[in-house]
Amino acid sequence: MSYPESVLYQVTKPARYTGGEWNAVLKDWRQIDIKVALSYPDIYEIGMSNLALPILYQLLNSQPDVLAERVFTPWVDMAAAMRAAGTPLLSLESKHPLKDFDIIGFSLGYELTYTNVLEMLDLAGLPVLAADRDDSQPLIIAGGSCALNPEPMTDFIDLFIIGDGEEVILELIEGFRRWKGKGASKKELLKSLATIDGIYVPSLYQVEYNSDGSPKSITPTEASTTIRRRIVAKLPPPVTRPVVPYIEVVQDRGAVEISRGCSRGCRFCHAGIVYRPVRERPQEEVFQAVSQLVTNCGYDEVSLVSLSTSDYTNIDELVAQLSQRYRSHNLAISLPSLRINHSSVRLISSLSSRRKTGLTLAPEAASPRLQRVINKVTSEDELMATAEAAFASGWTTLKLYFMLGLPTETVEDVEGISQMVNRVHSLGKRVPGRRPRLRISLATFIPKPHTPFQWVAQEEEQQLTSKLEHLMQGLRRRGIKLSWQDPKTSLLEAVLSRGDRRLGRVIHRAWQLGATFDAWGERLNYENWLGAFGEAGLKPAFYAQRPRPLDELLPWAHIDSGVSTSFLKQEYRRALKGQETADCRYQPCHVCGLEKREPQCQQKYRQLSQNRR
User: Fold this and answer.
1) Is 144 among the domain residues?
2) pTM beyond cutoff 0.90
């Protein structure tokens, strides 16, 4: 079946729902034993820009007895039209209803997409609560960075994949294959899959709470005490024949993951912990991937993706060679995560493409003191040299990312942001020709699980607004555009980020009250969320704005990221003292916990032990 034209005529961008794109994989439904729906809980344009989705799409479709098809959250007009017409949510490839698949897998990369998961299940005609689904209905799984604290979503998901999914998903498929042949119950399936390293089945754990609301115990009934994050030793083959969208998407370019993980140790950064250690793709693989992307998809821009692109070994050489090879193609090379240091100037100079994409730099904090607290030290001289090189090389738009509300932040730290920005702006004014534009993006600090700041309270809205007003007074120049996220959005993100499984009641009720697309400013109805919290007898401030004692049991304590709690506590104390921790790629092992399991870290730890003798 497919969506009726009477439905598609009612909605904006019907191409979001029609499929049939270039490079899409369509297998014979009748000949396939295991059918997987890869679900991204946001609109098509955002989901098609996700890097994990094409990796899993390629991997699963390479299995002869497995098909993987895509599905995204219908926008509100489409959801309303589908409900009015009684049309269920369909996959893009074969247009089969989601409820006909064996497995539905959700990618959880942002907490404010949680209600969209419920919306998709409901539009599929499935019960949103895991406890209400029977053995005839699909297995609902989830992964992604948010799964490192899966507790808020445990009411809705049958199992979570913790960490890199490339190996786990094939082991899960094998377990599902054996179970399907036996005809056993879904409960038996879940117990079996829970024995796979990196799989968390929440129904096999019981959680108790203290009288003050903090977790008292997390007890497995028929599973391991802890769930270890899966880490692939080698990056999977790059996706060189991705599905090419018919409509413009957020990241409308080719993408090559050149490395995974970051060892910089920024103390606010969730990704810096949950994607450790660093694994680089060989240069020759990158060259081949770019060549195949251009051939297979016709892209004229390719993004070199990593958490810290400028840390890739010999990145300036890689970029220079790519620019030279594709000079006649006018291929633009995009560097989405460029660290500000002396090597950035050389790197910018090597970007010799005639077309200049926007350049993004993320100092996060401006004052040297606060930079040491967050362990991301960027000297102003290095920033100015990087900006000057960018302007001189022809960039006309420079985006700078900063955070407000960082631990120990003062008004003087906030004033440092305006001083830094104004100095960059003055540099741009001296460039001949078109005057460059500065886009300043301000994010509220969100305390994230598995980071040294997981115990820190988020600042309240009144304090944040006061700091914003103070900053705006210092940024009154033409050519500077400031964007700022609503503090209520940041509060909700902090709540869901560090929440426990009691938040399932809140998420469920908020969705019933109409909450979907909460990440979209015009869609967030905070009053509905407050009503949902009130009905559940919970308060947002308990999760977001309460400092947590270092000895408190955290809701995600049974999820082993590979980085030890003792190391995180050590880093938290160093932050309060304003002490830096060097990058372990170039310094001795910091004994973060990965030395117990990762070969490259074990080798570095042995070197440290020998030097101590």
Assistant:
1) yes
2) yes
